[in-house]
Amino acid sequence: MRPVCCTHMTDTSQNILEVRNLSKSYGALQVTNNVSMTLKHGEALGIIGPNGAGKSTLFNLIAGTQPVNEGQIILSGQDVTKSTPALRCRMGVGRTYQIPKPFNGMTVLENLLVAATNGGALSLPDATDKSLEILEDLGLGDLADVPASQLRLLDRKRLEMARALATEPSLLLLDEIAGGLTEDECETLVQTINNIRASGTSIIWIEHVVHALLAVVDRLVVINFGAVLAEGDPQETFNSKDVQEIYLGIEA
Ligand SMILES: Nc1ncnc2c1ncn2[C@@H]1O[C@H](COP(=O)(O)OP(=O)(O)OP(=O)(O)O)[C@@H](O)[C@H]1O
C-alpha cells in the first residue's frame, strides 16, 4: 500500500482522468482537501470512506455539477475544470446518483432515450437501438414500457446505471449503487459492473458494501475528512491498520 497522497502520472495519454490538488469548501466546511488521483484507461478504482468524508462531492467536482475552489480536472488529457456538466458528459463522463433520480413519469425506455439523445447525442433511432440493448444487458428488457415510478429498488438501481450507460460513457462514476440490495442482487450487480468494465469502460465506484467493491476494483482509495488517507491494492489497503482504525473504528 502506498501511504496518503497519490502520485501523479505525467503521461496523460495513459490516463482517462487526472485530478490535481482539488479542494472544495461549503462556507467554513472544507469538504475536499487537496485531493489528487489518476485513473488509467480501462481501470476500475474503488473509493471508500466514512459518511460525510466527501466522496460524493468528489464526483460532483469531476462531473462538474459543483465548481472546484482549487485544483484541476484533466479528462483524456484535456483540462475540463471549468467545463459544464453537459460538455463533460459529451466527453464521456457518465454518473449515477446515490439516490436514484429517474424521470418517474416516463417509462424505463423513455428515461434511457432522454439520456442517449442528450448526453449521448444519438439520433432517435440509434438511441432506441442502443437503449434496448442496454436494458437487455442489465436485465431490464421486460420492463422497457413500465413507468419508472413502479420499479422495485434493484430495478431502480439498474435503471440509474442504464441511464448513465445510455450516454455512452468512457468513464463511469458509480455512487453507492449496492446499498440496500440482497446478497443475490449484489452478486448480480457485481457481474453487471464487471461486464461493463470488460467492455473497456473505466470505472470509479464509491461504495460502502466493501465486499462487492473488492470483487471489481483494481485499486482502492480511502477518503477521510476530505483528504486521501490511503490508496493501493484493494484488499491490502482495506486491511491496513490506518483504514481499519479510522474507517471502521477498530483498533488494530
Ligand atoms: N451542496 C452542499 N452544500 C453544503 N454542504 C454540502 C453540500 N454537499 C455536501 N455537503 C456537505 O459536505 C460533506 C461531505 O458530503 P458528501 O456527500 O460528499 O459525503 P460522502 O462521503 O459522500 O458521504 P456518504 O457516505 O454519507 O454519502 C457533508 O458534511 C455534507 O453535508
From TrEMBL:
Residue stretches in coiled coil: none
Keywords tagged on the record: ATP-binding, Nucleotide-binding, Transport
GO terms, biological process: D-alanine transmembrane transport; L-alanine transport; L-isoleucine import across plasma membrane; L-valine import across plasma membrane
GO molecular function: ATP binding; ATP hydrolysis activity; L-isoleucine transmembrane transporter activity; L-phenylalanine transmembrane transporter activity; L-valine transmembrane transporter activity
InterPro entries found in the cross-reference section: AAA+_ATPase, ABC_AA/LPS_Transport, ABC_transporter-like_ATP-bd, P-loop_NTPase
Cross-referenced PROSITE patterns: ABC_TRANSPORTER_2
SMART domains recorded: AAA
Pfam families with a match to the protein in the record: ABC_tran (PF00005)
Stretches assigned to the ABC transporter domain: 17-250
GO CC annotations, alphabetized: plasma membrane
Membrane-traversing stretches: none
Name this polypeptide is given: Branched-chain amino acid transport system ATP-binding protein
Organism listed in the record: Thalassococcus halodurans
Origin organism lineage: Bacteria, Pseudomonadati, Pseudomonadota, Alphaproteobacteria, Rhodobacterales
